[in-house]
Amino acid sequence: MSLGELKLPDYREQTPAVAARFERIRQRPVTLKVRNLKKCFGSNGDAHIVFDNVSLDIHRREFICVVGASGCGKSTLARIVAGLDEATGGSILLDEKPVAGPGPDRGMVFQGYTLFPWLTVRRNVMFGLQMQGRDQNTAQSEARQWLDMVGLGKFENLYPHELSGGMKQRVAIARALANNPRILIMDEPFAALDAQTRCQMQSYLLQIWKKVDATILFITHDLDEAAYLSDRILVMASNPGRVVEFIENPVPRPRSDAQFLSPEFLALKKRLEEHIHPPSEVAEKLPMIKLTEAGDEVE
Amino acid sequence: MVLSFLVPLALWSALSYIPGLWHPLVHVTDAGSVDYFVTDMDVPRATFDQEVVKARAAGQDLPKGYLVNPVYLPAPHKVLFAFYTAFKTPPRLQNEPWLHESLGHSIRTIFLGFVMSSIFGLPLGILCGSYRFFAKLQEPFIEFFRYLPAPAFGALCVAILGIDDAPKIAIIFIGTFFQQVLVIGNTVRKVDPALLEASQTLGARGLRLMTRVIIPASITDIYTDMRILLGWAWTYLIVAEVVGTMSGITLFINQQARYRHFENVYAAIAMIGIIGLSTDMFLAWLGTVLFPWKRRARSGSSKFKWIGKLLPQPPVSASEPTKPVEEKPAAELNVAR
């Protein structure tokens, strides 16, 4: 691991421009407020704690990434915010109002696309709009606008199975944004895509986010992705799931691929690496097997 | 598919046309001196050989005949011919039905039974699949009733509904309905929960969750279930037609058997198979028209293309490609901007 040997700035160091941006973000109203959220599975006696004591504030138009080792409950957190799972304790406030059950004010993009296979691309995007009571024509023209926004205007009459993975996910993003949700929850949306498409989708997402008034809660296990996309990164640890750090991303915006090797990026990534892959002590404690009979000495 | 039919057909032809392969009987053409032989009578080969030896020893006229299979195994060409003649030959008695009338009667019985079963079974199955409340309310009883064999209700149906078509339709109904509710309930339950969750985050709830998500998500599988259930309805048909006054294709088969016209019996049985298979293939093709999102480039429509050629073409939008469209990243980025 060469990251450790490089001389890097502290990940908390911010250029004046970045610091000023965070100051502005802090002035914005809080869209989502999570307080002492707790989730257990099983009966109350010997329940398995998924996570406990998770609190965070997300300001309007902020881009929050959640990273953590598998099992820390980051996807469960997303599902609870979306209303698809119920929390065991704590509270979630959206615009100061408690949330209960799934609703169109919290859009969600899933890893598995979840487009409706029986609807064309346009009708998929129209689905939420019609559920809001929009009439056919309004829904249709709004859906077209959103499809143009994600660059799929000419594919509106295709069925989902005729699209590639990246295109499907862009339809899913358009479908979620068309509802004008207060917060867009994205649960590892690009994890199923190949590396190239994923990079492309990340730039796409930043472009879209620039154009719309969207607050994003983005779950990922890809540290590069988190560092590239986020304003702030919520780092979670497992057993039991908990928040270990809420990092302000020092990488200035606008972002580009060139920044992947910038000192700020590497410093941030090193910090994330330390959280997610702490130096292992297990290997040290293993008994050493010496292959003396074969004449080989283990180093 | 063609091969799967050729193998049994070849076996049948071999048994019928290769002399001595089976042919356990001799068809007598000339009784000769054997007093108990009659022309056109079938006797076992051993008996015939014995009589020939006896007649030769006594110096009398030899009986003549040729090897045949028993009358219940007619040769393929006879059955094929019967296919033609069965539609042309008038019935022996005046009030007996023609083959096509028998078939029409059977198809009508099946159709009515199946439609009536579906009118109740489809909605109930979808309800059971969608709401646990309905599943708990209905399914235990239906599970119990499903095990009661439909023919067991024959006498009861006749007592209540008379001896004509009503009890036959009722038996097909009983045979189909209970399976239908359970099978469709199960299919509806298998709808991808991720689709339900996605639709809920888009604001779908209550009845619209059912009409806009659950039903369209499961409709193709329900359609397949219905095709399989229709096959079951045919198996109940033969039982149903014996109830009360025998009717339809069963009556035809029984009468032809009584007259020992076994080639007609085979023709009628084969006719049921042909009607069943062609109905199913038609429905499979219809499925690809009704559910365009199930149409894939590699399967589905291609298998039934020839049926499609016989029928009006399904509406396909001209812009619709059969292969997944590849992305053109640079160009689309410009569009997005």
Please characterize this protein's 3D structure.
The complex is a heterodimer of chains A (299) and B (337). Chain A is an alpha/beta fold. In chain A, α3 (121-131) packs across α4 (136-149) and α4 (136-149) crosses α5. Chain A has nine helices and ten strands. Chain B has 337 residues and is mainly alpha-helical. Chains A and B meet through β6, α3, α5 and α6 of A and α8, α9 and α13 of B.
CATH architecture of the largest domain in chain B: Orthogonal Bundle
| Shape designation of chain B | elongated
Query: Whole-Å distance between the termini of chain A?
Result: 19 Å
Number of domains of chain B: 2
Helix content of chain B: 55-70%
End-to-end CA span of chain B: 53 Å
Features:
heterodimer; A: 299 residues; alpha/beta; Rossmann fold; 2 domains; six-stranded mixed β-sheet; 9 helices; 10 strands; B: 337 residues; mainly alpha; MetI-like fold; three-stranded antiparallel β-sheet; 13 helices; 3 strands; 66% helix; disordered C terminus
Would you kindly provide a brief summary of this structure?
The complex is a heterodimer of chains A (299) and B (337). Chain A is of the alpha/beta class and 299 residues long.
What's the topology here?
The complex is a heterodimer of chains A (299) and B (337).
Chain A: H1 16-27, E1 30-41, E2 48-59, E3 63-68, H2 74-82, E4 89-94, E5 97-98, E6 106-109, H3 121-131, H4 136-149, H5 165-178, E7 183-187, H6 195-211, E8 216-219, H7 223-229, E9 232-237, E10 242-248, H8 263-276, H9 282-285
Parallel strand pairs in A: 3-8, 3-9, 6-7, 7-8
Antiparallel strand pairs in A: 1-2, 1-4, 4-5, 9-10
Helix pairs in contact in A: 3-4, 3-5, 4-5, 7-8
Chain B: H1 2-17, E1 25-30, E2 42-44, H2 45-58, E3 64-68, H3 76-88, H4 99-130, H5 132-146, H6 154-161, H7 165-189, H8 193-201, H9 206-242, H10 248-258, H11 262-290, H12 305-310, H13 329-336
